[in-house]
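User: Hi! I'm working on a homework problem where we have to compare a predicted structure to a textbook description. Could you give me the structure for the chain below?
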Amino acid sequence: MKTSFIAASVQMVSGTDVDRNIARARELVAEAASRGATLVALPEYFCLMGRADTDKIARRETFGAGPIQEALAAMAREHGVWLSAGTVPLVCPDETKVYNTSLFFDPEGRVAARYDKIHLFGFSGMGERYCESDSILPGGAPVKAETPFASIAFGICYDLRFPEMFRSLAPFDVLILPAAFTAVTGEAHWETLIRARAIENQCYVVASAQGGEHENGRKTHGQSMIVDPWGRVVAELKKGEGVVTASIDVNVIQSVRTRLPALAHRVL
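Assistant: Happy to help. Predicted structure tokens:
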């Protein structure tokens, strides 16, 4: 297993046109690969920030087929990267909803892991209201995957607020967290929660966010970041579209866990 590799967090300001969003994601993945990234993470809803929550239902795909998934597989193959593909709307048993699914593609373009978002965001106040359960069916189980270079756990956006989910998967080396945090909740809680998950799981967190004002009027917080197991922010992009990269060093993980063996001290 490699002792270090480059991870890239991609930030987008996705709009209502799926094809345009995919084209922009393709450019940003290419940029990440050109900077040496082995692991690339896209944000939640990278392919569509619709004018209405139901817009994603019209673009849902069957797992393993469809233009969004085909484009993602091609990106991974073309650049030879492990691609955490933000989220994709997939068919679920309820015809009026979708799964909000993060797919993890290997460098051959094959799906190495699938995680359906478990915790569904709900918020009302300060002139805003969100209720993901109106259009999304929750997943049933947390997921992690083993790669040749790291053990990787997955979460999506609101999952960040539920530390027990990630602790149930520990230990792992990297937590990938695509998100579309609102400007209001992101300003208050985003960085604190990201750093907390890194510290308590003694892992790197690669958090890829939506970051700006969207066509539908929604404002997202941004601040895509990579945080190390000591809770230090090692790469960050506040607003707008772009890519940040950082070295993921397995020796740092081992050093933190040796000096402060909190995971080994777990009782519950």
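For your comparison, note the following. Helices lie at 18-34, 55-58, 67-79, 163-167, 183-201, 250-259. The chain is about 25% helix and 30% strand. Good luck with the assignment!
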